[in-house]
Design brief:
Elements: H1 24-47, H2 51-62, H3 67-74, H4 78-90, E1 94-98, E2 106-110, H5 112-133, H6 138-159
Helix pairs in contact: 1-2, 2-4, 3-4
Length: 161
């Protein structure tokens, strides 16, 4: 039997009664993920957005994309994405602009009010993260980054077909 054919081994910390074998790093990561999964829900409720609207604003705060890309990233229909964008436009948080290279396409741009709305609700978290980050040396940050990038790759495996 080759390595490719071998059944996957189950980590020793999986299963009931194995709590003492669970690595502290994985438990801390699990705690972070659990708390982090609540952030969009709580922030969107406070801001009066749907979670999809908040996630769309998050994507638009990083780059200009079109409505079809919003649909892909949110894993919704183009009609649903259009509704999300329409609501954000009506609140003045997003603008539709013609694509510079292809006038048939539309790009979405987050406005200052959209950016301010999202950042305002997340600023306490950003400040706390910045303060926490500043307590680490460059060498420690490199280790943490390597760990988190590896964890991201592991999560991406769960998304593969």
């Amino acid at each position: 039997m080759t390595d490719a054919e071998a059944p996957p081994t189950t980590p020793r910390w999986i299963g009931r009664g194995n709590e003492s074998a669970r690595p502290a790093t994985l438990m801390a990561l699990r705690d972070l993920i659990a708390v982090g999964s609540r952030v969009n829900h709580v922030v969107s409720r406070r801001a009066g957005f749907s979670e999809s609207e908040l996630v769309a604003l998050d994507h638009l705060s990083r780059e200009q994309i079109g409505p079809a890309e919003v649909a892909r990233r949110l894993e919704v229909s183009t009609a649903a994405a259009t509704g999300i964008v329409d609501r954000l436009v009506s609140r003045g948080h997003v603008e539709r602009r013609p694509h510079e290279g292809d006038r048939r396409r539309t790009e979405l741009h987050i406005t200052d009010s959209g950016r301010t709305e999202v950042i305002g609700h997340l600023m306490p978290m950003f400040r706390a993260l910045d303060e926490h980050d500043s307590r680490f040396t460059d060498e420690e940050k490199a280790v943490v980054e390597r760990y988190l990038r590896g964890a991201t790759e592991a999560f991406e495996r769960a998304l593969e077909p």
